[in-house]
Amino acid sequence: MQLFRRALLRNGLVFLLLGTAGEATGQTPPAGDPARGITLFQQSCALCHAAALGIENEVITGQGPSLVGVVGRRAASGLNFYYTQALADSGLVWNPATLDHFLANPVAAVPGTTMPAAILQEADRRDLIAYLSTLAMPAGAGPPEQPAVLAHADPGDWRHDAPGFQHFVSPAGLPPPYRTSSAGNSPRVVKPPANAGLSVPPGFTVRQFAAGLTNPRLMRVAPNGDIFIAETAANRIRVLRAADGADAPSEIQIFAAGLDRPFGIAFYPAGEDSQWVYVANNNAVVRFAYRRGDLRARGTAEVVVPALCETQGGHTTRDVAFSADGRRMFISVGSASNVGETMDKKSVADAQRWEAAHGRGATWGPETNRADILVTDPEGREPLRTFATGIRNGVGLAIDPGTGELWTSTNERDGLGDDLVPDYITRVKEGGYYGWPWFYLGTHEEPRHAGERPDLAGQAIVPDVLLQAHSASLQLAFYTAAVGPAAFPAEYRGDIFAALHGSWNRSSRTGYKVVRVRLNHGVPTGVYEDFLTGFVVDGRSVWGRPVGVAVAHDGALLVTEDGNGTVWRIAHVGR
């Protein structure tokens, strides 16, 4: 058991392991190697499921449920997390056998679960379950309580959301770290209430466009107007076809299946004669031969980039975009951890030697090629290299059609309090360093890495548009439509729309909406404003979590949300 304790402390976790495997649950210890299970947990589970001791020694959770004491517990019975109804109705009790069955294929074991990743190797599942069987709640700590719904006025929370309401987050106004405790406030996703309604600015309408999708995530529109959607948990790409002005699709097909947590989609080359559909899987980029109007893939996937990084787990969304001249392919790869907890320490001199080959502020070990935007050519012949570093989880990528600049929407780190660290939307500079994990927003040093990289002080680029912390900005899209029955007024052209999936690490809920980022001749002002709101029911429940945004052929703005598996259509109808 001493081995387990040393391994955990070395990796920066503070799980409390009591006795040998099995003593915590009173059961016969399962077969497997708990020490190896620690490593697997760090690689595949820790970002969502780590339970750590925060300030004042309270127990907090990640954006997923805590796995402390999971063995012997009824499924969906843990506190401080709102589980899917599918898992709550499953009747499962977690033991080595049920955990093994679930982890081998979560979607097949419990249809409707949002658990995204399977653990395919039997030996890996056995060792991971052996480790989980050793976890117990620290003595005297007790289970975490649900955060109270705040009664005081919080200018950053959902109660202030309304179309047209403007936000500006200034780096100069940021609080110090740990001014508030780190909350575990995951939402309960419910069916739309009877009085549910969404709000958009005057002159616009919003209607449900499609329903019944499985975990619809990023969305891109083909040159002919077909709508391609990544159903990530189902490992497939779905296509919706609709006539201009239609309020619902006329055809729905599965374009490709059998993928690995697909997210990013891109058509290449740009224009009416695209010949390939590129798909960013969890750890590879593949492409399918394509001709205008295809509703099904013409053949099997061709591998373009066989591996993006050496580690699995952590942030799993990858996006892909092509430069305006079509010569470069950009791929976003999120971090494996919250704030680089799993990296070994290096001296400044050793770190700088590493950077000489990997870019300023590049991370190493399990974070190699992660928290980066990578670049290669569209054929994948050139070796992957870093285009920009220190971008913790650049979920969405987009090219400004006016300037050709690359943009990203980024989820920043958790655990520093309600208002740290702001998420952001920004232009990405080649060779730029954006702070993670040692700094954030210029000169602000990460307290969990204090004193480790003094040479990077002042080197982190301050992003263009800061968003309310923990909003979870996902896909972004430039509004480009000039004509069409649903086209927006000219003042919207060139602006950005972004989907905010919503907070879990904030005591007062924020996000769960679509925002508009105003640009002035391609230059951001730092201001963003609410555009689509209304998914939040109250301080505990929501009925929608926006993920994808795309401009339809007829000028409408389409929005996916993965809480209830729907697509929404926003059209301009005049004032």
Summarize the model shown.
The protein is α+β, with helices and mostly antiparallel strands. It contains 8 helices and 31 strands.
Structural overview:
The chain is of the alpha+beta class and 575 residues long. 11% of the residues lie in helices and 26% in strands. Helix 2 packs across helix 7 and helix 5 packs across helix 7. The longest helix has 11 residues. The N and C termini lie far apart (69 Å). The N terminus is likely disordered.
Notable features of this structure?
11% helix; globular; 8 helices; 5-stranded antiparallel beta sheet; alpha+beta; disordered N terminus
Approximate helicity band:
10-25%
Query: Unreliable segments (pLDDT under 50, ≥5 consecutive)?
Result: 1-26, 51-60, 142-152
Count of separate DSSP helical elements: 8
Number of strands: 31
The residue-averaged pLDDT reads 87
Cα radius of gyration in angstroms: 23 Å
Strand order of the largest sheet: 3-27-26-25-24
Class based on secondary structure composition and strand pairing: alpha+beta
